[in-house]
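== Item description ==
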Amino acid sequence: MVEAKIYFGSTPATKEEVVEVRSPFDGRVVSSYPKCDPSDGERALQIAQEAFRRHRFSPLSQRIAWLRDVAERLRERKEEFARMITDEVGKPITFSRIEVDRAIETITLSADFAPSLVGETINTDATPSGRRTVSFYKRVPLGVVVAITPFNFPLNLSAHKLAPALVAGNSVVYKPTPEAPATGYLLAQLFIESEYALEDALSLVYGDAEVGSALVQSEIPRKISFTGSVPVGKIICRNAGIKKVSLELGGNAATYLDRSSDIREAASRCAVGAFVNSGQVCISLQRIYVHKDIYEEFGRALVEETEKLKVGDPYDPETFMGPLISEDAALRAERWVESAVKAGARLLLKPKREGRYFYPAILADVTDEMEIVCEEVFAPIVSLVKVEGYDEAMEKINNSPYGLQFSIFTKDIELIKRFIDEAEAGGVVVNDIPTLRFDIQPYGGVKYSGIGREGPKFALQEYTEIKSVVIV
């Protein structure tokens, strides 16, 4: 068991009251963390503010070396981190190892892109009102950043915030998800104990809404970066005040299967997209719109491909799906399915619930009025909808308050070009699932899916601001 600690800057601390975290798989205590209160958040912010004042002119070469050192030490401890992820959130160990690899890439890419964060010269005499001067702009760090992260990718989504924010020259107060405090602690420890670390540039506190609200409402931070639910995102927007805010709030990912698509390949990929990480992915495939000519055949193929996926012990390398994060989540998934069936949906693959386990559910004949296609389910449930063709599918796909990632399966280049232009989403995927994401790419959504973009190159811009310079 890992006993996580607070970091007030680079100084570890504990408190008398601790909170235990139990494995979603077998219920054993796998970690614990000190119970923080708003005063702990305020103390961390004050330390971060002072650290920024001391380090704001630190050489970029040191910050790059810092990230490269963290990435290398994470690589050396890959199995330890992977097991910690599986312990705390029940993710199958194979996918936990993949998450560690991705976090290493994210940190490394942040170091790689940092030197390209540049300004440019401005021709001030380009207009009649201007005159010849030396004018340019440069990008500078914001100051203090608050980073709040979720449970479903507790390591890599934390790396997506910490690495670009720190290499850009900011100081950070990091609040990891209460479901995976030790994963966050071990990551913060790598940064803080690095020989290249900037003293007190990273702090770590724990807690839920009370601590989060104190961090968001404080006048100290210049930036809030949050990944989580829409309701919490709305609260952050109301309470943040005059700050930069980045929000990644999830989605209701959809795909369209044209009649020209490869049915077997599409079914194989859609099974992965719908059920990887037990559907607990912001871009988990939730809605599949299928051309009427291939609807029944695709439904049978999707069932066949899904039945190949192993549900079970997350420590078994062959396991594809482990438990949901909590029994409440499994009960909620069960209610989603029951509600849809009562409203007229047809079960192609009937799920079952065993404690925190919820087996894959495939629903057919789902209609626009059913809640299961209107909201984010965050569970291993996928819905099939029969459509006449592309136009109907596109209208239904866009008829959502979310717009994170959508995809299309087709061999028709004209449909591909239309889809790229017409899909109301932050990202589109052609001939694969909308769950496909590479950490190097810009990632974020439109509408209720959020504000801003992640991905190291693009996050670096989010964590800096422009300073304009004129020399007469």
